[in-house]
């Protein structure tokens, strides 16, 4: 089965979201804005992705990133990718994995302290409202964080610092755009004569497919989807793998590693990011009401049981 994904159109920043919504999709293409209205504050009453708000939550987030930035080395990420890329830790359905995430809260997220399944459903339902015909994007939103199952004891109970948080390339210089980059100086790779150069082990426009990213849930779920021959389109896999690469899609860092295909795919990360980031709230989705729909999508795009 081949999924044809229409090219998204990036709306003019001078137009309001209301205007973009009113214009509609006259040519059948997708608009970046959709109809989603971005809230002013997160569930705690702060601005979104505010990593400097003094609070108990802030201390937890800060410590997670401190450890992440010290221990995420090229050697570590390569080793983890090799180990978990075997997909020999478990065999279960996509929905069984969703259920496991009920036990965990992401300690790198300053915007939400709810179990992960809530975030997945909120993201998916927000996308579904704005892009009702793009069912592959609904499912992508539902599964994008399933790699956080690495926190579960069945997967070795990996620490939060190696599972959650923003991701970034390894094997080349760290960019100041990386959140909490002040901790990077303690990472051994920052002193490596090769890894500390702009291109490091890479070449200009080598393509993100050839770049080793910091290890975490993004990379793991990408390996799981790809390794189980998902029927999701390449755009979905790109979103899954790079949705936490904020230094690139928010700040424009590391563009020199991208090839032309990456530049086309990045538009979908921009579309998805709004729903990933701003749909987080304390309002629960009615699970029993929406579950049959998502089970039908899982059945369409994945085998009944996946190797994890």
UniProtKB/TrEMBL annotation:
Cofactor binding, per record: Binds 2 iron ions per subunit.
Record bears the keyword Membrane: no
Cofactor(s) required for function per UniProt: Fe cation
Alphabetized SUPFAM superfamilies for the sequence: HD-domain/PDEase-like
Record-linked InterPro entries: Inositol_oxygenase
Reactions listed under catalytic activity: myo-inositol + O2 = D-glucuronate + H2O + H(+)
Binding site for substrate: 49, 106-108, 148, 165-166, 243-244
Compartments in which it is found: Cytoplasm
Entry-linked Gene3D superfamilies: Hypothetical protein af1432 (1.10.3210.10)
GO BP annotations listed: inositol catabolic process; L-ascorbic acid biosynthetic process
Chain sites annotated for binding Fe cation: 119, 144-145, 217, 243, 276
Source organism, top-level taxon: Eukaryota
EC code(s) of this entry: 1.13.99.1
GO CC annotation: cytoplasm
GO terms of molecular function: inositol oxygenase activity; iron ion binding
Residues making up the signal peptide according to the UniProt record: none
Keyword terms, alphabetized: Ascorbate biosynthesis, Cytoplasm, Iron, Metal-binding, Oxidoreductase
Pathway field: Polyol metabolism; myo-inositol degradation into D-glucuronate; D-glucuronate from myo-inositol: step 1/1
Main location: cytoplasm
Family: Belongs to the myo-inositol oxygenase family.
Name of this protein: Inositol oxygenase
Source organism of the structure: Aristolochia fimbriata
């Amino acid at each position: 089965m081949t999924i044809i994904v229409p090219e998204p159109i990036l709306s003019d920043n001078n137009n309001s979201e209301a205007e973009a919504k009113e214009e509609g999709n006259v040519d059948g293409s997708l608009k970046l804005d959709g109809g989603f209205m971005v809230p002013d504050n997160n569930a705690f009453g702060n601005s979104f992705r505010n990593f400097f708000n003094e609070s108990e939550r802030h201390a937890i987030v800060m410590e997670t990133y401190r450890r992440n930035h010290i221990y995420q080395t090229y050697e570590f990420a390569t080793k983890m990718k090799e180990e978990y890329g075997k997909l020999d830790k478990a065999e279960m359905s996509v929905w069984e994995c969703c259920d496991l995430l009920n036990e965990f809260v992401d300690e790198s997220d300053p915007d939400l302290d709810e179990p992960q399944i809530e975030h997945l459903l909120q993201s998916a339902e927000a996308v579904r409202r704005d892009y009702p015909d793009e069912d592959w994007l609904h499912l992508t939103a539902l599964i994008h964080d399933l790699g956080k199952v690495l926190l579960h004891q069945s997967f070795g109970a990996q620490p939060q610092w190696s599972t959650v948080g923003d991701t970034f390339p390894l094997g080349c210089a760290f960019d100041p755009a990386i959140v909490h980059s002040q901790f990077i100086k303690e990472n051994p790779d920052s002193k490596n004569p090769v890894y500390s150069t702009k291109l490091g082990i890479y070449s200009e426009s080598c393509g993100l497919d050839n770049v080793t990213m910091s290890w975490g849930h993004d990379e793991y779920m990408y390996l799981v989807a790809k390794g189980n021959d998902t029927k999701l389109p390449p755009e979905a896999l790109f979103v899954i793998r790079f949705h936490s690469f904020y230094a690139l899609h928010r700040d424009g860092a590391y563009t020199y590693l991208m090839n032309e295909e990456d530049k086309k795919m990045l538009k979908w990360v921009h579309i998805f990011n709004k729903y990933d980031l701003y749909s987080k709230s304390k309002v629960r989705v009615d699970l029993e009401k929406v579950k049959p729909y998502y089970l039908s999508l899982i059945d369409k795009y994945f085998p009944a049981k996946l190797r994890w």
